[in-house]
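quick one before i forget lol
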Amino acid sequence: MVRIFTVHARPLTRYGVAQALIGAPDFELVGQTASAAEALRVAVALEPDAITVDHRLPDGDGIELAAQLRAARPGLGTVVLGPARDRQLILRTAACGLSAYLPETAAAEELVAAVRHSVTSGNGFSARFLAAALRRGGRSAGDGTLSGREQQVLHLVQQGLGPREIADRLELGESTVKTYLSRIQAKLRVGSRAGLRTPG
């Protein structure tokens, strides 16, 4: 049985997520809250296998919360819900080593699949609109060019690899990969219509 804890600000979202999860015969909802502070107090004690969390909470940042909970419980599946096709949030989620990023409007079956992925795929990363979001333009504060290594890292993220798997593939430290992801995020931050330039 997969034990799941949910952290969602709006009552309607909490209800919808709960209904989707309890509809899966192998899922058990062990707790839910709207508060980052409460989640930090009780989630680890409940020993969930996975959490779902809003990217933004009334009292904190959902992505940071998920990263803290995963640090306290290695192997915890972490599914972040946020706006569709938001490349900044997608890259932040990947850079923090979390499991999946899902649109807030996702169907129940997609949520169940993302949670299942989070507990079965180790350090992998998934996001439904990942490739499209990263193609939607974006210049850096400078010239918008990704370095060769940044392109390699981005390509592996698009393949669904998490920071640890990318580090193994490229023979780099995991912290180095997270630094590259942060740089890519910064370069994709500004502009929505200009095409992403690459060297050469």
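fyi Residues 137-143, 190-200 have pLDDT under 50 and may be disordered.
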